[in-house]
Each structure stands twice: as structure tokens, then as C-alpha cells.
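Following up on my earlier thread - several people asked me to post the actual chain instead of describing it. Fair enough. Here it is, all 293 residues.
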Amino acid sequence: MEIGINFPMLVPGVDRRTILEWAARAEAGPFCALGGGERVTYPSVEVMVTLSAAASITQRLRLLFSVIVLPMHSTVLMAKQVATLDVLSGGRVDLGLGVGARDEDYRAVGATFDRKRLRRMEEQIAIMRRVWAGENVVGEGVPPVDPRPVQPGGPPLLAGAMTPFAIERAARWADGLCGFNFGPSADEVAATYDLARRAWREAGRDKPPRLIMGFWYALGERAREQMDTYVGRYFRIYGEPMVEMAKQMVKVTSPSALRDAVRMLADQGSDQAQLVPTTADPDDVNRVADILG
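Reply from S.P.:
Thanks for posting it. Predicted structure:
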């Protein structure tokens, strides 16, 4: 199993130094990928710009979108942006896609948050693949949308799906899952993976799904306080009962808990564990590298 690490996308105070230091230390460490997710109405940096900065100062790390909320975006423009990043990174993009659950983010960008957004996303994916194949998706007499991605057919597509229905639908179009589990819980991860493997088989897919699972972690003397602050900020919009429940779910607040979580994901057959930090201190990258060896 490979191990990736996310940028501290959802931690307040991230600046140029944070991003550059984080990327440089990850590149020098035992990690396979640098990742980042998307939020709009939140104290966060924008993921496309952040991973583009990472592309310019790294050489080997995969660049993982975990995830882009595709129905909030222009389909063809997103295809062009992703292809451009694939070119600039030398073919290192992994594209996690999902529909999100935050209506306030949709409202902020003028997009429609409704029950049809999963179907809209699947339609968008089909168009993006046509763009990456060099097809004309605009109309007669209009040249194709360039550039073409370095990776043939476009970057690997990963479903940021968490519900059984979404996972079953993902077997139609995704190369795998880019999931997230709060615990992480072995039982929940096993159930998700079993469902994904079955869905891929029933869809007649030649290859089993690539399985990536992320989780939050905190390290150091004040790890529990750091985690509780992060969780509280993330779930505050849902009210205090939800905040307290989430705090009880999240367990990785020590070196031993981090090692146990990574070992559990490997035992469940994960292809990649994606570690999501709760601090913007670049020293955290070195702490993780030292703990996991």
C-alpha cells in the first residue's frame, strides 16, 4: 500500500510558505501523492491553484484531487484546466470527482444543488472524456479544446462516493474510489470496499477498483485539542450535537493510532492511504515520515 498526504487545505492561515514547504517536504519523504479537496464557503485555499503550485516544485508526486465537486463547475473549462495541469505536471494528475453535500458552496458559485446533480456529473464526465480525446464538443467549424492530457484518455478518475447508491453508480465511469472515513473504522472501510469490488464485477469491469481512503490525523502534545478544534470548525454549521458526535468518531491523535490506522487500511486491501492533516505546520510532514518510516 502506498501513502499519500494532503495539503492542509481546510486549516486557516495557509500561505505561500506553507504550501511551498509542505510540497518540498512531501517530495523528499516516503509519500506517493500530494492531495487536496474543494470547499468554497470555508477558510480554505482553492484546490486547482494549490495543486498547480505543487506541480511546479515537485517532480515525482502524484497530484490528487480529493475531490472536485464537478457539478459546481463549467464542464469544458474544467476539462481544459485538468488537462493543462496534467501537461504542466508531466502526467501526474489523479482526479477525484464528487457531487458534494454543501448547498452553501453551490449557492456561492451560482450552481444548482438538487437531487439530479449525480446524473449531471456523469454527463459532465462523458463530455470531459470527449474533450480529452480531442473531439469537437462545441460545434462545426470550431477547433477542439486543447491541450490534450499527457495521460492517454485523461487522468485516472476516482469517485468521491460515500453512499452505496453513489458507489454502485461509480462502477460505470470511475477507475476507483477516493473515499474518506472519520475513524477510520475497519468495519466501515471493509463494507465500502466490499460494495465497490462487487459493483465493479457486476458492471463487467476488467480491473478491480483502485481503493484510496483518507482520514484526519493529529500529532504532538496537543493533538487531541488540535483535532477537536479542527472537527468543531468543520461541523459547526450542523450544530453542537453533531460536533460532539464527530469528535467521538475521530481517533487518530497519536503516533500509535496513526500506525494502527495505516496498518488497518493495508489489511483491508487499500491501494493508498491518504493522510489529511489538521495543522498547517510543515513540520507535520516530517513527523508523519518519521512515524511511518
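The chain has one domain: 2-292. That should answer part of your original question.
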